[in-house]
Amino acid sequence: MKIVVAIKQVPERDAQVRIDAAGKWIEESDLQYALNESDAYALEEALQLKEKHSGEVIVVSAGPERVGTTIREALAKGADRAIHIGCDDLGARDALGVARLLAAAIKPENPDLVLTGLQSEDLGLGQTGVIVAELLGLPHATLILHVERTETGVTVKRELEEGWFQTIELPTPAVLTIQSGGNKLRYATLMGIKRAKTKEVRRLTAAELAVDAAPVVLLEQVTLPQKQKSTQILPGTAKEAAAALVEKLKFEVRVL
Amino acid sequence: MTLLSATLAEPQHFSLFEKLLFAGLAIASGCGFWRRFGKILDKILQSKKDPSFHLFPIGKRIGDFVWEVLFQAKVIRERPLPGLAHAFVFWAFCTFVLVTLNHCAVVLGLGFLNPAGQFARFYFYFAAAFALTCAAGILGLFVRRFLVRPKWLGEKLSYQSGVIALLIFVLMATYLASFFVSDATPAARALWWLHTLALLAFLPLIPHTKHLHLVLSPATVFLSRGTFSQIPPLSGDEDFGLVAGTDLTQLVSLQAWSCVECGRCTEHCPAANTGKLLNPKEIVLGLRGYLNEYGPSSEQPLLGKYNAQEAVFQCTTCGACEFQCPVGIEHVPILVGLRRGAVNTGLWEDQHGAKLFLALERGSNALGLSPTDRDKFIQRMELPLFDGTQEYCLWLGCMGGYDPKGREIVLAFTRVMSYLGTSYGVLRKEKCTGDPVRRLGNDLLFQQLAEANLEALAQNKVKKIVSICPHCVRTIQEDWKEYSTPPEIEHHSEFLARYAHRLPKQASPNPTSPETIVFHDPCYLGRYRNVYDEPRTVAALAGELVEAPRSRERSFCCGAGGGLAFLGEETGERVSHNRAQELAATGAQTIAAACPFCNTMFRDALAATGEGVPQLMDIAQLAARGLPQSGSS
After folding, report:
1. Are strands A201-205 and A174-178 parallel, antiparallel or unpaired?
2. Both B433 and B510 in a single domain?
3. Do A246 and A195 reside in the same domain of the chain?
4. Torsion of the alpha carbons at B369, B372, B378 and B380, rounded to the nearest 10
5. Residues in Cβ contact with B413 at an 8 Å cutoff, skipping those fewer than 6 apart
6. In a domain, B181, yes or no
7. Is residue B368 within 8 angstroms of chain A, CB to CB?
8. How far apart are CA B168 and CA B165, in angstroms?
9. What's the CATH number where B289 sits?
10. How many A/B residue pairs have CB atoms within 8 Å?
11. A244 and A167: one domain?
12. Residue B114: enclosing H or E segment and its boundaries?
């Protein structure tokens, strides 16, 4: 089974994000980066499929030089080789632009499966994987927790809302976007890192892939969420306060 | 005065037949010894060289050798009665080297100690004194092993030990009896031959039994790494710790064959005492078994037939085993080495372990919390940031920065520092020192954490660090050395003890019955850092000290070390409960701790015990309690 995993390097979850001077992107200096969480689960799913059925796992990632550390981490965890699409203007590209880069790099590989996280932790658009499927002309399924190989393709478990799951069958090749939490992630090992040194990382550029950079969606402004305090003290006896609380949870916050 | 005028009786003439018989038996005995010993020596020498081994500085090696081997100090100190009995046997053996050489030379007509001469007369009596104490000693040890039978010696009776004891007794008895006969009598000849036969039977038994330690352990003590629980650096791209036979170094192999199976390590092991699979003695004997079967060039995994992965990951790295070992075996580097082999190659699969590793791969602290929690704590408590002008960098650590109880210790300590007028600051960003991952054997993660922290400390121009956590102190001072020179660091007990004379001594509300305090020695402060008196000096400011049955060097672990605080449920009894009950049973009103991990373990253990338990405080909290209430900071 030949599996390509598209991964993204994103700011660490706990990073203190600041907006850059132009107000169009975040200030990238000083930030620590890590592998996007659902991509880590996509990689784990791919590695487990490979361990079960043998084959090859190829990671592909677009981004500047710093992405190299995340690619090495993926190789250390067990991916066989990598493709690094060098691109310094990732923030300026929309989901279609990034998907075009990825699809162009993936296409010549002719994989049986393309896995990626269901969304990125920084932009959270949740579209890239689906657009890649469209560009490659492949069927896709989203929010996948588990993948089982069958004679003709794969059976996948999708997460729906309110604790519901859906099991569907797809022919391969296919594109799947993976939800976090389906597997237990493996930790990086010293042996993995040492072995990763000798693994192939092919470098491509947007120009080589002949991909159009002009976005169809324009990013106008990036802002930090406004903090506001809306604490309300509910007066009265415990009984009255509880009744008022239920009222608010039902009709104002709508969580009940 | 017939005895004093008498001397050792030795037959004067030996027939050719006797000479040939002696030569034949001696050669057979020597061959019997070498057939086995040569193989063992070969395996030790064929093992991988210790890449970080340095013979120098040799002074300390000689000092340790004289103290531990020649004076038998460790053997005696840790088990006084059997230790002394053993020392008498050992000293007699040393004394008998000359006697025995002469004994064998006599048969060939080459005797160099003339029984009539003054030196020989003196020496034979000198040796006789040792022979007496040796005979008494070996009799005592025999009684202990076969009648008293302490459980640490193992379930199975070692009949080999009985045979050896008998031979030693015969050697001494025949020697002593020779003073009561005269040279030319058949009795003298019979005693000479009995002594010789015992000797020649003893020699080949040595390498086949645990008495191999006679030959090996002096070398083991002399060649040991010399610093307590020192984890050697990995060397080269293919070294992942102790994975297979090819990873066993000469020191490890030497140690495996030196074990005398006395069980002191097991007796003091928190895992072995609470019903876990781990038994440090069996780990060492497991390596010996592996070497015997597969040898040092085998690719067969070390964790398998002879040692279980489960046992290896039950070690709290408290170091009690290594501290007790009389033959210089370094258990902690072996156990951590086996863990390294499993973790660095990804063979160890543990839900909690993986969670800890992933938390530290992505985040900054072992508790898996957001670093903004630490930022908020610093802001809320208005802790000064370190800017290079303050004397100390106060290292918060994961517990001091994130754990509510750890934070209370930090705040108590800052109150004392402010009272003393000592300037300090905390780092804006801090990562875990890597202590739990270092002891669990994750070298990749440890290196990343150590290097990131070393860089941050260098950027902030930190010269001196003080920390409330003995694990942070140990890891920063010793383990980080592999990557760069860390700043000077001390534990808060050392700082507080230095200024104890300036801190208020607390009066008890009831002068006739002052508050009683029992201090628990944290492993990483006591055995690892040799700091025992300082925290007691601090605790004594607040009341009257009492001691737990197991204290100081023999302190019993709280169960948190070696990354085990993060590994979830234990099998068997909880180590923390065992220790907390012992501390509570002293009747002390207060348990004083000096480590935030011990603190949290005991807090849970005491809560499970229920009513009427002593209060639990860090020594910094005890010291801060006596400070004037307001405007002090």
Report:
1. unpaired
2. no
3. no
4. -110
5. B394, B468, B492, B496, B620, B624
6. yes
7. no
8. 5
9. 1.10.1060
10. 52
11. no
12. none
Do A26 and A85 fall within a single domain? yes
This model of the complex carries an ipTM of 0.88
> Does A52 reach chain B within 8 Å, measured CB to CB?
no
What is the per-residue DSSP string for A128-188? HHHHHHHHHT--EEEEEEEEEE-SSEEEEEEE-STT-EEEEEEESSEEEEEPTTSSPPPPP
Query: Which of A34, A193, A194 is closest, CB to CB, to B362?
Result: A34
Task: Say if residue A159 is in the same domain as residue A253.
Answer: no
Q: pTM of the predicted model, to two decimals? A: 0.91
Asked if the structure places residue A147 within a domain, the reply is yes
Residue A67: enclosing H or E segment and its boundaries?
A: helix A67-77
Between A157-161, A207-211, B67-71, B268-272, the lowest mean confidence (pLDDT) is in A207-211
Beta bridge partners of A165: A159
Q: Give B 372-401 residues with CB within 8 A of chain A.
A: 372
Chain A contact for B371 (CB, 8 A cutoff): yes
Report how far residue A33's alpha carbon sits from residue B444's, in angstroms, rounded to the nearest whole number. 18
Q: Range of B251's domain?
A: 232-344
Contact B94, B52 (CB under 8 A): no
Give how far A33 is from chain B: nearest CA, Å: 9
| CATH number, domain containing residue B609 | 3.40.50
Look at chain A and report how many structural domains it folds into: 2
Q: Is A76 inside any structural domain?
A: yes
- Dist CA B286 CA B261 (whole Å): 12
Residue A97, both tokens: 């632009």
Q: What is the pLDDT of residues B537-596, one digit of tens each?
A: 999 999 999 999 999 999 999 999 999 999 988 899 999 999 999 999 999 999 999 999
Our CA-based measurement puts residue B453 at a distance from the nearest CA of chain A, in whole angstroms, of 15
In a domain, residue B352? The reply is no
Edge-to-edge strands, sheet with B590-593? B544-546, B516-519, B590-593, B615-618
What was the pLDDT predicted at B456? 94
Q: Write down which residue in B293, B309, B344 finishes a domain.
A: B344
DSSP H helical ranges for B345-442: 351-362, 371-380, 397-402, 404-420, 435-440
Same domain? For B68 and B212 the reply is yes
If asked whether residues A19 and A121 sit together in one domain, one would say yes
Flag whether B633 is in a domain: no
Nearest-Cα residue of chain B relative to residue A35: B362
**pLDDT tens-digit series, residues B394-414:** 999 999 999 999 999 999 999
Residue B631 has what pLDDT?
Answer: 47
Put simply, the answer to whether B444 touches A190 (Cβ < 8 Å) is yes
Rg for chain A, CA atoms, rounded: 21
Asked if B343's CB is within 8 angstroms of A189's CB, the reply is: yes
CA B345/CA A78 separation, integer angstroms: 12
Could you tell me if A200 and A76 lie in one domain? yes
State which residues form the domain around A254.
230-256
Sheet of B488-491, strands arranged across:
B424-425, B392-395, B464-467, B488-491
Identify residue B409 by its one-letter amino acid code: I
Instruction: Quote the CA–CA distance of A125 and A38 in Å, as a whole number.
Output: 13
CATH number at residue B191: 1.20.950
Please give the tally of structural domains in chain B. 4
Sign of the CA dihedral B565, B569, B575, B580? positive
> Both B203 and B241 in a single domain?
no
CA distance A235 to A245: 10
Q: Contact A112/A176 with Cβ under 8 angstroms? A: no
> What's the Cα-to-Cα distance from A144 to each of A168, B174, B471, rounded to whole Å?
10, 84, 42
* CATH number of the domain enclosing A58: 3.40.50.620
Distance CA B552, CA B526 (A): 7
Chain A hits for B443, Cβ within 8 Å: 190
Look at B358 and A187 and tell me if their CB atoms are within 8 Å: yes
Q: Which residue has the tokens 């993976």?
A: A178
Q: Are residues B108 and B189 in the same domain?
A: yes
Shared-domain flag, residues B475 and B588: no
CB-based contact, B362 to chain A, within 8 Å = yes
